[in-house]
Design goal:
The chain has about 80 residues and is an alpha+beta fold. The chain is built from four helices and two strands.
Length: about 80
């Protein structure tokens, strides 16, 4: 099983954009899916939102939320559009 732990408190939104964080997570998931153990056991993503600042929250836009929902739907069902 693969594990990805993201700590929001350590995210420096002025140095790393939310889009770059998203791309990093997607890259991790794509690489993890190539591992036979992950294909059987799956992956766990933990997003620790403790310490999330208001400035960080403003980075989350409705279009970004849609991207997350679309990604979760594809990951959970294995289906693509």
């Amino acid at each position: 099983m693969s594990l990805l732990y993201m700590c929001a408190e350590k995210w420096k939104h002025n140095k790393v954009s939310l889009d770059e964080v998203y791309k990093g997570c997607v890259l991790f998931l794509e690489i993890a899916m190539l591992e036979p153990e992950t294909q059987v056991a799956g992956a766990v993503l933990i997003f620790d939102m403790d310490g999330l600042s208001l400035q960080q929250v403003w980075q989350f836009t409705p279009p970004f939320a849609k991207r997350i929902v679309d990604l979760l739907q594809v990951c959970n069902t294995g289906a693509s559009k």
